[in-house]
């Protein structure tokens, strides 16, 4: 597939934040002002769909490979190395081939899981992976230096707060609301660390799944409350408009490649959301 523009496009760095388990209707219910503001000033939808099964390991692997769970082979909530049906082109590895670094920040996975987590990051082609802290604020703190110094490529953060509260207390419970608001404040910190008026900077915020559709404390089903997610693109070159529907989590890695001017491998199931950028250079 030919990208619509070459490396002369404006975006140089993408910061991708995954708000684990954040349901779209939580944004209004719990007055998540930063998420709402980003949605309003960027290209966004509250009706994107995640992958099936709607669980974190599948969704994160799809975000990092562009492939469906059926193709990349991670089909349960157990994190493991992909067993793909064909060639897999991990997003960080594909970016690295075009000299874009990737760094990755998520909560501490524990001593036993750490070797696996580092191995998985290395297989994906992640240059710098940190597993530190246990909530959004601690993860932002761990990423702070990288956000300041890595001006190109991709910075990924995964925040566990809302999902954890949902499993413990139920989706949309008071505790879930508190966790969602805490993630919203952490997102506020991220927006202070990135200049969103700068055309070279793009912030992508999404959830990996919802929750409470069938089981009030779980999210693995085809119920819309489980598999519909918010998706927001913001930054200096991003239009202020609703995203065209239908839109999928799988469109995110394709769009990241496209916005950085990197050709999309055939194993990517999604399409680039080419309407999100202002003033595109015309295709050659
Ligand atoms: Zn979960």
Radius of gyration: 17 Å
Residue fraction in strands: 15-25%
The CATH class label is Alpha Beta
Mean pLDDT: 94
Distance between the termini: 13 Å
The biggest beta sheet reads: 8 strands, mixed
Tally of structural domains: 1
Shape: globular
Secondary-structure arrangement, i.e. CATH architecture = 3-Layer(aba) Sandwich
Helix proportion of residues, in percent?
25-40%
Looking at CATH, the homologous superfamily is Alkaline Phosphatase, subunit A
- Treating each run of at least 4 consecutive H or I residues as one helix, how many helices? 11
Provide the list of bound ligands, each named once: zinc ion
Any low-confidence stretches, pLDDT <50, length ≥5?
Answer: 1-7
CATH fold node name = Alkaline Phosphatase, subunit A
According to DSSP, the number of beta strands is 8
Structural class: alpha/beta
Strand order of the largest sheet: 4-3-5-1-6-7-2-8
Would you list the SSEs in sequence order as H and E?
A: EHHEHHHEHEHEHHEHEEH
